[in-house]
Amino acid sequence: QGQEKLSCNPKKENGTHVVLCELGNPMKAGARITVDLELSVSGLEDMGEAITFHLQLRSKNSPSPSNASVTVTVPVEAEAEMELRGNSLPATTVLPTSWHWVEGSRRLEDHGIKVEHVYELHNKGPGTVSGVTLSLAVPHLLGDHVLLYLLELGTEGGMNCSHHPALNPAQV
């Protein structure tokens, strides 16, 4: 007939999270009730592809083995938008025409002008992310000639990096 809010109480039973909702007391024999439940569940990032709910209708007055039980499986879809920002410091670099690379030198200036590339990976949400892999392809050779001498790679924010084999080969 009308709409009423349910009184629900979450608790743990045998290591399982249980929510008990009181539908009516007393309830008339033969009564028909439709219940819409909205559940807010957090921490689903590592739950896999679905979460399963076991729903059961029980009566305190007349326990019966025929208490209706239903299993509902809901797909979990984590949504997060990643954004990659990058810049070079300085933004533009021009080598003088008189500059020549010095083979075997361990001095920085003999390998070119220092340019720092900074990349920032941002999660714009709404969900959290884990296990993200970012692969940067940096062209360091042009034919048989060194285009960019890769000196070092650094990270901030608890990330792990695997270094490219061409990273600082002359140990400058």
TrEMBL record:
Topology of the protein relative to the lipid bilayer: Single-pass type I membrane protein
Keywords per UniProt: Glycoprotein, Integrin, Membrane
Example GO BP: cell-matrix adhesion
Keyword Glycoprotein assigned: yes
Every Integrin alpha third immunoglobulin-like domain range: 83-171
GO CC, alphabetical: external side of plasma membrane; integrin complex
Gene3D superfamilies per record: ntegrin, alpha v. Chain A, domain 3 (2.60.40.1510), ntegrin, alpha v. Chain A, domain 4 (2.60.40.1530)
InterPro entries reported for this sequence: Integrin_alpha_Ig-like_2, Integrin_alpha_Ig-like_3, Integrin_dom_sf
Matches recorded under SUPFAM superfamilies: Integrin domains (SSF69179)
Annotated Integrin alpha second immunoglobulin-like domain residues: 3-76
Molecular function in Gene Ontology: integrin binding
Major subcellular location class: membrane
Subcellular locations according to the entry: Membrane
Official protein name in the record: ITA2B protein
Phylogenetic classification of the source organism: Eukaryota, Metazoa, Chordata, Craniata, Vertebrata
Gene designation: Itga2b_1
